[in-house]
């Protein structure tokens, strides 16, 4: 595992965007696994800048998002569909048909989850999967207790996650109770994982994910099983780590 500790959120965002841009340059038809939440926003802003100012070309890129709430209309400003279009897709030259986000409004949610897995397979899997981390150690919406072999499915959100995400809604009562999320097994099949975290509220989860035992109680700890995972975190998120880490990539990444 590679762990890069940066001084600031902006530096995390720049490095993450550079790694993704590098892949887009070298593999114009790459599949990007994308995440929502506040953490990847800076990386998305930088990718938009690279598209506008440097001509970074997304015209053949395919994307797969990690998760979506159940029961929020796609145009609801808290849905992850809305989030992705507002914060990335509408600002770059991605083809809408190449965008994949789990459908939280499907009549048959289970069938939609199976279909999502098939679509990922049909595109040859995910090349780089961007991940945030929940303060309770969740990845995507795989809450503590999620099977480490899980696939895309319907999950119930924990009260902690609903409280964490309530800041985006008028009140906690409006935060959906259910979601559709790629499973941990699905995420681990991506060829590369890029986990971003910033701020003191993530320090415990980051330490448990990186230095704790692999356990379903900390879903992010499953990334220890992955052969190519890079954590890019700031000092506050790194504060509870005990081993020694670096501030630069140890190799040219692609
Ligand atoms: C959300 C998302 C995750 C995200 C996490 C952290 O609930 N489902 O994909 O990584 O929680 O969010 P944030 O980046 O806002 O701290």
Automatic annotation (TrEMBL):
Family, as annotated: Belongs to the glucosamine/galactosamine-6-phosphate isomerase family. NagB subfamily.
Catalytic activity: alpha-D-glucosamine 6-phosphate + H2O = beta-D-fructose 6-phosphate + NH4(+)
Species, as recorded: Candidatus Glassbacteria bacterium RIFCSPLOWO2_12_FULL_58_11
One of the record's GO cellular component terms: cytoplasm
Keyword Hydrolase: yes
Signal peptide interval: none
Enzyme kind, highest EC tier: hydrolase
Cross-referenced InterPro entries: Glc/Gal-6P_isomerase (IPR006148), Glucosamine6P_isomerase (IPR004547), Glucosamine6P_isomerase_CS (IPR018321), NagB/RpiA_transferase-like (IPR037171)
Single annotated GO MF: glucosamine-6-phosphate deaminase activity
Residue ranges occupied by any Glucosamine/galactosamine-6-phosphate isomerase domain in the UniProt entry: 13-225
Keyword annotations from UniProtKB, A to Z: Allosteric enzyme, Carbohydrate metabolism, Hydrolase
EC number: 3.5.99.6
Pathway: Amino-sugar metabolism; N-acetylneuraminate degradation; D-fructose 6-phosphate from N-acetylneuraminate: step 5/5
UniProt site positions, description: Part of the allosteric site: 146, 153, 155-156
Gene3D superfamilies: 3.40.50.1360
Alphabetical GO biological process terms: carbohydrate metabolic process; glucosamine catabolic process; N-acetylglucosamine catabolic process; N-acetylneuraminate catabolic process
Biological role stated in the UniProt entry: Catalyzes the reversible isomerization-deamination of glucosamine 6-phosphate (GlcN6P) to form fructose 6-phosphate (Fru6P) and ammonium ion.
Active site: 67, 136, 138, 143
Name by which UniProt lists this protein: Glucosamine-6-phosphate deaminase
Activity regulation remarks: Allosterically activated by N-acetylglucosamine 6-phosphate (GlcNAc6P).
């Amino acid at each position: 595992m590679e762990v890069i500790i940066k001084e600031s959120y902006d530096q995390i965002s720049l490095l993450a965007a550079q790694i993704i841009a590098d892949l887009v340059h070298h593999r114009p038809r790459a599949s990007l696994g994308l995440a929502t939440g506040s953490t990847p926003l800076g990386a998305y802003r930088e990718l938009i800048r690279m598209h506008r100012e440097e001509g970074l070309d997304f015209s053949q890129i395919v994307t797969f998002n990690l998760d979506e709430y159940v029961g929020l209309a796609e145009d609801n400003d808290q849905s992850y569909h809305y989030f992705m279009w507002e914060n990335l897709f509408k600002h770059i030259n991605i083809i809408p048909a190449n965008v994949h986000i789990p459908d939280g409004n499907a009549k048959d949610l289970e069938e939609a989850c199976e279909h999502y897995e098939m679509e990922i397979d049909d595109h040859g899997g995910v090349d780089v999967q961007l991940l945030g981390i929940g303060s309770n150690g969740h990845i995507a919406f795989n809450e503590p207790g999620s099977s480490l072999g899980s696939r895309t499915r319907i999950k119930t959100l924990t009260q902690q996650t609903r409280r964490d995400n309530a800041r985006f809604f008028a009140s906690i009562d409006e935060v959906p109770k259910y979601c559709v999320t790629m499973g941990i097994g699905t995420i681990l099949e991506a060829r590369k994982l890029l986990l971003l975290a910033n701020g003191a509220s993530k320090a415990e989860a980051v330490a448990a994910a990186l230095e704790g035992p692999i356990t379903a109680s900390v879903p992010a700890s499953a990334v220890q099983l992955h052969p190519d995972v890079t954590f890019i975190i700031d000092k506050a998120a790194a504060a509870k780590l005990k081993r020694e880490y670096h501030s630069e990539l140890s190799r040219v990444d692609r």
